[in-house]
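Before a colleague's protein record goes any further, I have to sign it off. What it holds is a sequence and that sequence's fold in token form. My question to you is simply how this chain folds and whether the tokens agree. Thanks in advance; the entry in question is below:
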Amino acid sequence: MWKRVLITSTVCLTFLVGCGGPVVPIGPQAQVSGGVTNNEKPGMLGIQVVFYHAGKGLTLAAALDAQGKYALTPGDPKVGIPVGSYTVTILPPLDSIVQESPTSADYQKSMQAGKVPGTVSAKSSTDSDIPEKFRDAKTSGLVLEIKEGVNTFDFDLSK
């Protein structure tokens, strides 16, 4: 009888607790938002602000809204937005997305280069709004330290 009570209690406890709790990112986390301007005008809708954390091999991207504002959201809730040093690039809006497997060589190469993997961007009128130097992690000059909590970073492309 005790064996039956023990098994029943274990099963009930498992259902009450669940198989896993909420997903909680590991380590200190950040919230990141801001805006992009060029000659005091808000950046165009859809322009991509890409943050690359070389130490973690992590790339996060956000598109500008109609007011030229962005807010990063973690692609993986287990990773979140970890604190640390990030290189930022500003890219034209994505015109199409190509599905890539996270295990493919192209995907890995994009991640290591601080690019949004699986993206193809066609030339558009927005291209001329983004100076060439901001499109490459090696030349953007935008290296930021993201700290725990709320972070706001505004970028002026005319400088």
